[in-house]
């Protein structure tokens, strides 16, 4: 059982969400007391060259770095880990069998099927049995639960050794469960509840993208190990909007 | 006299400030009703390759694009204009003679000494007398007033044909005027007042970096043509800080 | 039925083909009255970082942007759409079942299986049911018909809801149909004819890479909705070749 | 049978290993008499934009360029070849059926299933039957033998027409054969011996990553066609370590 | 006296002009028999990172590489030479004294004032007296004659040892000589004639940007050593324009 | 007087030299116990975008980062400091008056003339008097002594407040002192001795590029504060050369 797992008495770790690949956004976004960052390499514009830069910068700032990888494929999982990420979040895991395969790419044999490499994660040096063991202990692999078939097999998924935890994708899950656009409905939270319960039963971690107060309260109430609460785009938009709006209001007041 | 010059009845145009070179920040930062953006190529991490990308994207979003150029040199002035910028802001202009030279790099002969080129600004096509005239009419050149010697010669600077307006640099000006760190003191505003008066007398535009309410009120009161009110770094920081703080507060409340 | 579909009375839209990722080539290549561009991300040197730049620049120039994606995989299909492309062209679709899966990555559930994201396509904002509907209506998905098995199932492929049209790949199709190198033979055109007929019967669009007069005439005669007629490499080569050749001829004449 | 195949009388070609994408490292690393380079695009930080630059530079320096591709997928195999690589090394080939498919992406039909393209490899020109034949003759495809299932089917793999040779991955193979971290043990060499024998029997090439004297001696003794003997990271580390250590020793001696 | 200097019996070398930094454009643009390329780093979007890539690629294709540098400054002159360029073309040389200084940055002391470095030009190795002598012999430095004051001192400029030749800038020269937009007028050619005569008298090379038949004939008639005849932007535009126009004409004809 | 200044009892700090901009080389090059790194932005291929990445990565690895800037200009000096460098080394300082100006760009008024900015060095935050004071105390500015005129005025240069130390450039100095290629001659060391003596008299630091044992012994004997002993290119070359050579020897021995 993971020592990072929260208990009822431990509030969830807070995380930031980065997607553009901007170094500046990474530096500023990791300045407000978050414990971890999620880099969205699935949808954001960042690519491998960007990950190779941002990962060491974020780690040097004390952040646990989790990469939401481009796809549930071997290469998408292993490269961020080669570059030194602390963990991966794998999108569109379709079920337990799929999870066993794709989450296995984050752990070396015999536990999984990660490919050995002498990159940054190894200090560009020589492989040793000790390093292999340490990497597997350190590397966190989260399966995204955002497909209906994955929710159906949530208990089997969290039971897998190669799965350190799960990361729900509420928007994709809602539309794939036939409810259309995610709306923080009772059904939406019921699905999240099922995920939380499965994790609790299996003593596994889960991290919620929790932008809304209701999501944050849910994460706290149900023992999430982490919640992602500050999104780069939202932060930029909120900051610019308020700065411009305040100035416009002042200019109008002053101009009268 | 510029048709974009504001009068007492016209509030200053609002502008955003970009410095990192992030395309996403450019797109989000230009979404809240600003009329123009300033790209800080003097201190920000953006370089020519970045300007070449961000300038056309910002212009396609209806923004007037002003580049605070890397240095008061020919090459730093002309390249952003080649890439299609609407204007340049030239840092560390030291006086009237210096302004005549370096602001001249933004206008073609006989008015100035800009070098002719067939780049994006020309549609990659062939030079014509009409285009040369249009470019000179369209291109805005702002001299920064941030050195004591420039302030001493402000009246001569704004009288120059190659100077479309000025852009005060309050922090550099304060320290160079011997007052140490800029503090929005009476002396600071007295200097800005002298600049505003000189522009008014010469019917020239001026744009103030106006982050603080006092600066914004000053800009409105003294007829600035524009004020830069929303800084990318501040926006990011304010956005992330508030999102993390709100989540922490909620988590603590919920966790009790 | 698509409103962009041409009829006998409507000539095919003309398109340009870009592959290098050069911004300049994108700007110049979209200056001659084409309605759309195809960016070849399957074989060209452009990668995601390049797509993220070129897509908004081309769209701001009034071009419909279709990305021939790197591979028939979820991540290759969804990222260009996240970056704001108008549509995707999916290479090496192997048959109707394959088309259902991979073209489905271009449409959200329940129609398809595209993953939801808040990127440029959404204005970096919040998901709404309206946006989801609009995206699906706007996004064009073309299946490439370049494998023998796909031609065998062309009627089933064009009948699929997730397929807005098809894009034949004559060179790959010829070699995979056992005819060796494509030569605009009668058999080559017979295959294209079968594709055109299937589209007509299903009221679906098709776009032909039509570099040669015979291909262009075929596209017009058989009601193609679009034809790609100007290739970046050909344009560069033709332009450089003629400029150098003309100069050489003149130099020799003048030197006599 | 390949004319590059070594015989007992021919020592293995020597190769360098590059992974960072640094142009300088490519230039310096190809200055010491190697016949070929392997670019590790599976684990190294280099991506497609980097390959597009480094491949022509290395080829102009007389090196045969083999790219260890990112994954055993069509797109990962074909793009380096489009960019002009002489060959590919395909990681994690799982067995003969897998090899037939993924190595097939390196050869055009009817031999394989490579997709046709008019990129650097073709001089950006027009496809001809002659070029197709020449490419297939020139392009080298090596299957990596690093999974237990591949070793089990080594004889079938080397018998395939689309397989020009194999490239063992000793570290991955050891851990996947249940021996834990590779240690140059008798079992490790027994596996390599089986690979070498299969190649000899099938008159196919094999290339060994041979960093250690024992590996190099093994490669020579068993008729490897090539051995990779100089790794960018090792070279950098060895060079920096010795330079710093020598200076420290001298400084201490001089300081006494 | 330069051995590359043409005589009445030798037609001018032909050159291509590149400006975007596109590798593809460099490869295609150097495929039609030119002897040299000019890379416009003064106005084009290419920066040092781009020069570092394109220079070795062009040199490997047998082209003499001349970089029109960003500015007449030490750093702009020396870096392309460090990266391996064969020569530099220095814009906006203002007169003989200026030429002595800035062209001097292309030659080592005692001839000039170039800074010593162990970069690509030196093979990343150790400085030797032989290499210093060879570099100075190989490196070509062209002063641009595009300012009125430079034309006034053309005889003194071409007499300088650090000046291997000159490169007229007809457009800038016309506007700076008070004639407005360059129009291939008699006065324009009279200025060029003065430059050609000065070079002939001093046995120095000159290269003309000669896009127009009249310019090409002039260059031949007056013994230019080289003429730049094929511009990347013109080539792209001419190629795309003709391809689209031909297709449109065919489509209209076919559609009738 | 600097607290980092060495005394007879303190051996010089050891430093590494980086020039390519490779992140990997930066990481490996800082792994062998050096106290500082010099990044050669004057001659190396690294540009501002590269500095912006490598500086924070090197600082996070405990290295003092000194950037040998592109040129003795305001913009070249201030940007690396904005990006967080610990100090700058300014090439081609021509004398005391020149040093006062260009080294002044590294210190804020009233000591110098550095331009104020809110970039990484400031944590992207707001200017305070405390930060200004701390920056000036932390920032190290080294004048290069590599021109004859600078050596002539070495005593005046080291007496300047804006000069924290000097960095001799032996190769440029030798050729500019009329001795041709640097050869570690008695005259070469006499010049270095004069520099060392001037620094000792003025209690200023000096750092020697000391690749050769004689240079290293000289640096120790004469109280250099630092010596740069490990060059990226040398390290790469030495590493690759020895690895290839050892393998070739073994292959030949084994092949007999």
Describe this structure in words.
The structure is a homohexamer of 256-residue chains. With 256 residues, chain A is an alpha/beta fold. The first copy, chain A, has 11 helices and 8 strands. Chain A has an 8-stranded parallel beta barrel, surrounded by 8 helices. The longest helix of chain A is centred in the last third of the chain and has 24 residues, at 232-255. Chain A is globular. The model of chain A is unreliable at 1-7 (pLDDT under 50). Chains in contact: A-B, A-C, A-D, A-F, B-C, B-E, B-F, C-D, C-E, D-E, D-F, E-F. The interface between A and B is large, with 51 and 51 residues.
Q: Helices and strands in order, then pairings?
A:
The structure is a homohexamer of 256-residue chains.
Chain A: E1 13-18, H1 23-29, E2 36-40, H2 48-60, E3 64-68, H3 74-82, E4 87-90, H4 96-104, H5 129-138, E5 140-145, H6 148-152, H7 154-158, E6 165-168, H8 170-176, H9 186-202, E7 205-209, H10 213-221, E8 226-231, H11 232-255
Parallel strand pairs in A: 1-2, 1-8, 2-3, 3-4, 4-5, 5-6, 6-7, 7-8
């Amino acid at each position: 059982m993971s020592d990072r797992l929260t208990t009822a008495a431990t509030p969830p770790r807070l995380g930031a969400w980065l997607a553009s690949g901007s170094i500046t956004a990474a530096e500023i976004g990791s300045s407000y007391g978050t414990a971890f960052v999620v880099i969205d390499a699935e949808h954001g514009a960042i690519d491998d060259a960007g990950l190779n830069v941002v990962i060491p910068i974020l780690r040097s700032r004390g952040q646990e770095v989790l990469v939401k990888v481009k796809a549930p494929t071997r290469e998408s999982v292993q490269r961020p880990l080669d570059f030194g990420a602390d963990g991966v979040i794998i999108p569109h895991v379709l079920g337990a069998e799929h999870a066993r395969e794709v989450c296995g790419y984050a752990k070396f044999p015999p536990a999984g099927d990660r490919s050995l490499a002498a990159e940054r994660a190894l200090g560009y040096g020589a492989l040793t049995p000790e390093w292999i063991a340490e990497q597997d202990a350190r590397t966190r692999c989260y399966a995204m639960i955002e497909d209906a078939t994955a929710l159906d097999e949530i208990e089997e998924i969290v039971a897998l050794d190669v799965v350190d935890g799960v990361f729900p994708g509420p928007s994709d899950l809602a539309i794939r469960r036939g409810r259309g656009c995610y709306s923080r409905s009772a059904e939406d939270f019921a699905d999240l509840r099922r995920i939380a319960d499965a994790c609790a039963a299996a003593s596994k971690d889960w991290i919620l993208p929790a932008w809304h107060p209701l999501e944050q309260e849910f994460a706290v109430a149900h023992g999430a190990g982490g919640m992602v609460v500050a999104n780069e785009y939202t932060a930029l938009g909120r900051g610019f909007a308020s700065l411009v709006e305040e100035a416009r209001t002042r200019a109008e007041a002053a101009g009268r």
